[in-house]
Amino acid sequence: MLFTLITGASMGIGEAFAREFARRGHNLVLVARSGDRLQALAEEFQRHRGVEVLVCVEDLVDAESPARIYAFCRRQSADVDMLVNCAGLSRAGDFDDMPLEKLEEIMMVNMLAMARLTRLFLPDMIARRGGSIINVASLGALQGVPGLGLYSATKAFILTLSEALYAELKGKGIKVVALCPGFINTGFFERASHNRANLRLPMSETGVVVEAAIKGLKNNRLRVFPTLIDRVLVFSQRVVSRKIVIWLAGFLAAVDDR
Ligand SMILES: NC(=O)c1ccc[n+]([C@@H]2O[C@H](COP(=O)([O-])OP(=O)(O)OC[C@H]3O[C@@H](n4cnc5c(N)ncnc54)[C@H](OP(=O)(O)O)[C@@H]3O)[C@@H](O)[C@H]2O)c1
User: Fold this and answer.
1) Is the CB of 32 under 6 A from ligand 1?
2) 147: burial class by Cβ within 10 Å (0-12, 13-18, 19+)?
3) Cα 210 to Cα 254: distance, rounded to the nearest angstrom
4) Model confidence over 164-197: pLDDT tens digits?
5) Model pTM above 0.85
6) Cβ(136) to ligand 1 under 6 A?
7) 7 — phi, psi (to 5°)?
8) Which residues of 192-202 are buried (b: 16+ CB within 10 A; e: fewer)?
9) Is 151 part of the annotated catalytic residue set?
10) What's the pLDDT tens digit per position in 18-38?
């Protein structure tokens, strides 16, 4: 049976993906650390949407977790034909203040887990000649963001890898989308100690992001910028200097009111 696997499905954007795909009748594999939240979502979707939902509680900081997730899906005979790499985290502040264990955590979850999961599930998709991968990057992937240096670098990794995969997989029936949202209304900022009251751009709701991603996938887009403001900012990068691009990114994110 075919399944959509979503990491970071317990809350925020990942939960919104799970809700929308359940509504569309997808069977789901939900991955995150918060087992209770995943279980509650699974029961809700099974009861109200009639889809099959598997809960896989894993901490993606653990380098072996992607292999366990893949083995779990094999044991459950869940053929993953859509992979949504959504789990991610940030930490606001200058790089020289970043606790080393936080640095590891951000890089493990945002980059290594995403790359390993993609590498593990891709061969089966290629063998079936069909599949989709939604990688949740960020507008921050397009330049270094002062105050969010490591986070923006991990998102650039996701964007770059997605671009190469898009081209590599084109003739193999696999679609790849790099989703690049601006500021989205979730608990992400509190968890990153980033004062959202300082942000100098309006926040969008998770539904806008999910809808844009699904539309982008349908239209075989490579990079998806969900809102008009996102697209204006991307366009502005063509006409101003790189130093201004970087300054503007830091100004808009306004970590510590910089
Ligand atoms: N919010 C924004 O403004 C924004 C903008 C651009 C891009 N994004 C990206 O969108 C994605 C989702 O962000 P969000 O706003 O929905 O944030 P969120 O509400 O904080 O959700 C993050 C998700 O990642 C999971 N996660 C974090 N660490 C994990 C770990 N070690 N192991 C397994 N799962 C882990 C969390 O689940 P558990 O805590 O249950 O493990 C949660 O489900 C992230 O990749 C983020 O970088 C967000």
Assistant:
1) yes
2) buried
3) 25
4) 999 999 999 999 999 999 999 999 999 999 999 9
5) yes
6) yes
7) -90, 150
8) bebeeeebebe
9) yes
10) 999 999 999 999 999 999 999
Residue whose structure tokens are 């995150």: 32
- Considering only CA atoms, which of 4, 223, 38, 8 is closest in space to residue 113? 8
CATH number for the segment(s) 2-257: 3.40.50.720
Q: Report d(CA 20, CA 25) in Å as an integer.
A: 9
Handedness of CA 210, 173, 222, 61 (dihedral sign): positive
Instruction: Tell whether ligand 1 has an atom less than 6 A from the beta carbon of residue 60.
Output: yes
Indicate the domain borders of the chain. 2-257
Structure tokens at 205: 């709701």
Beta strands in the chain (DSSP E): 2-7, 28-32, 53-57, 79-85, 131-136, 174-179, 223-224
